[in-house]
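Supplementary Text 2. Reproducibility record for the structural model of the 233-residue chain.

All settings were left at their defaults, and a single model was retained for analysis rather than an ensemble. We include the record here because the model underlies the residue-level annotations in Supplementary Table 4.
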Amino acid sequence: MGQRRKIGSEIPETLIAEEQEAEEGRFFACYLLSSRSPRYKGHTYIGFTVNPRRRIRQHNGEIAQGAWRTKRKRPWEMVLCIYGFPTNVSALQFEWAWQHPTVSKAVRQAAASFKSPRGLVSKIKLAYTMLTLPPWQSLNITVKFFSTQYTKHSAGCPRLPEQMKVKVCSMDELPSCTKPSDDLLENEDEWCHERECDEDMNSSTLPEETLLDFRTHNSADDQQSDSGIRMNE
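Retained model, structure tokens:
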């Protein structure tokens, strides 16, 4: 597809339907990390992944590739994972808006009521708030925490739409891409390398990202096509 679409902008319903069919069997998720380093206590990181178990290992340096900007704040703990997005475009839109709530057109009005968008508790509350907004409120989203230690932070969060689920599970119980491909995983590393952002960065100075030349994966005959994410500087 050669259409240009801004992350955080609306996508035509017909296009969503086409991409949802093409991405059937895929797993697209956004996640929240918290640094366990005493030096960086309270620091968080928001990202996108198709394989959470693999991704946290990258962040913690257990396997190579990707997550290079989070190296100095290791070790990291995955606090929660949000999945159920119909396409990677949808998940990337959510991730970008979660990272840049004061810039995102879809989120900035709601984010204006936050004293600060930084910090673990605020990031959890922001995610819950975003899921009640028009771009995402009709999706069949699941929010999974990996420890009851963090579920208490959802107490003051907005009530999620009734079709959404909140669960606590171990990392091993979390699903991942059901049609794994080296191509998709390699692109995930490339996307994260280009887009990594944590709370140390000033989101108000960042340009709004765009998706260019998005091509779907896994056609009916399971042939793969290249997929790329580019950024406007």
